Each structure stands twice: as structure tokens, then as C-alpha cells.
Amino acid sequence: MKKNILEKTGKVLSTVAKAAVLIEVNSTCPFAVYQPKLPESVEKMRKK
């Protein structure tokens, strides 16, 4: 039972994290001072 709940929670969290990355990879930092460098694995998700 506990393992089943952890698996479902993990899948949901993974989906939410991936959605957040897809939104953020195609946007820029609103502050002109600092724009962090994205990892190569995230750069591959960028829309062209």
C-alpha cells in the first residue's frame, strides 16, 4: 500500500517537474542581471 502511494506520487511529481521545465526552457529571466546557464539536457527540450 505504502509503496503504491509512493509510486503514484513519484509519477505525478515527475510529470509536474517536466511540465515546469518545458515552460521555463522557452522563457528568459525577467531580471537583466542574471540569466543562469541551462544544462544541455534541458536545451534539447527548447522549441525551435
UniProtKB/TrEMBL annotation:
Q: Which NCBIfam families match?
A: quorum_AgrD (TIGR04223)
Checking InterPro entries in the record gives: AgrD
Q: What is this protein called?
A: Cyclic lactone autoinducer peptide
Native source species: Blautia hominis
